[in-house]
């Protein structure tokens, strides 16, 4: 069974976006995965297709309505659908490579893209939405975040990456940032490729790469080293 993603959005024209190109696009054409973008406004009840209202208790902005979102979710993910329901949200649990691998090993995902000030909490609770964040910053909506999540997942699906082992040493896979990379020319603006990489000694190369990965992680993401302990 192929990986099947359904995205609930006010802007379905944003999909598949870059996911229709390169490796992800070829995998979609091959049937490795499928993507459906569902217009949330189709589930509104009024002629203006309104999906939001003023926040209870006052305040700025608008909030996406629970009843309309529930209808959209129930349409996309009826009872018995095994796919997790995800809400892209800046207050969600940070997306990790571990979670990406879990999703890639599953049947797909139903992804809700929030807009405005947020989503009525009642639909989050009633439909058991998993809130996921791609970083400590605010976007104009959940669509770019959904594209990022799907990009991370699709590249791990069987047969998508040209070299299946190429992901094993990437950043976060072993609790470390990835080591530096070099290629030809041998010298660039007075900077040479480190000698160890051209020595042919695979044990020394592996040790050097591990040392560099630890050094970079210690300098840029010491929190990852703490997570390993």
Describe the 3D structure:
With 229 residues, this protein is α/β, with parallel strands linked by helices. The protein folds into 2 domains: 3-154, SPOUT methyltransferase, trefoil knot domain (Alpha/beta knot, 3-Layer(aba) Sandwich); 169-229, Trp Operon Repressor, Chain A, CATH 1.10.1270.20. The chain contains 7 helices and 10 strands. The strands form 3 sheets. The chain has a 5-stranded parallel β-sheet, with helices on both faces. A hairpin with a 2-residue loop joins strand 9 (187-188) and strand 10. Helix 6 (202-220) crosses helix 7. The longest helix is centred in the C-terminal third of the chain and has 19 residues, at 202-220. It is elongated, with a radius of gyration of 22 Å. The mean pLDDT is 94.
CATH class of the largest domain: Alpha Beta
- How far apart lie the N and C ends? 37 Å
Mean pLDDT across all amino acids:
94
Low-confidence stretches: none
Instruction: Indicate how many domains the architecture comprises.
Output: 2
* Beta-strand residue percentage: 15-25%
Largest sheet, in brief, is:
5 strands, parallel
Structural class based on helices, strands and sheet pairing = alpha/beta
What is the CATH H-level superfamily of the largest domain?
SPOUT methyltransferase, trefoil knot domain
- The helix count comes to 7
Instruction: Summarize the amount of helix as a percent range.
Output: 25-40%
Query: SSE order in H/E notation?
Result: EHEEEHEHEEHEHEEHH
- Radius of gyration, in Å, reads 22 Å
According to CATH, the fold-level topology of the largest domain is Alpha/beta knot
Biggest sheet, spatial arrangement of strands: 2-1-6-5-8
Which CATH-level-2 architecture of the largest domain? 3-Layer(aba) Sandwich
Q: How many beta strands in the DSSP annotation? A: 10
Task: Give the overall form.
Answer: elongated
GO molecular function: tRNA (guanine(37)-N1)-methyltransferase activity
Domain tRNA methyltransferase TRMD/TRM10-type: 4-225
Family: Belongs to the RNA methyltransferase TrmD family.
EC number: 2.1.1.228
